[in-house]
Amino acid sequence: MEIEKKIKIIISDYFNADIEHVNKSTTAADIQGWDSMAHTELLLELEQKFNIDFELSDLMGMDTVGDLIEIIQCKL
């Protein structure tokens, strides 16, 4: 499965959001329930699913789903 699609599915499942509303320009403010605590839990889940570790510098650059996708793709 394409990485971008897998990430979108994980995000939509995690927040019980319509996958059609999750795209590269989506931000936490666009999805109900995506607060700082949920963001941390989501990142932990993504680390586990993709067997990666986020660095502090990665976290500073995550403003959109597209940023998240790009960071994960660079780590694989």
Task: Describe what this molecule looks like in 3D.
- The structure is a single chain.
- By secondary structure, the protein is mostly helical.
- The protein contains 4 helices and no strands.
- It is globular, with a radius of gyration of 11 Å.
- The model has no long low-confidence stretch (mean pLDDT 93).
Reading the helices and strands in chain order gives HHHH
Proportion of residues in β-strands: under 5%
Taking all Cα atoms into account, the compactness measure Rg is: 11 Å
The general outline is globular
Category by helix and strand content: mainly alpha
> In whole angstroms, how far apart are the ends?
14 Å
Q: Regions with pLDDT < 50 over 5+ consecutive residues?
A: none
- Helical proportion, percent range: 55-70%
Mean pLDDT across all residues, rounded? 93
Number of strands: 0
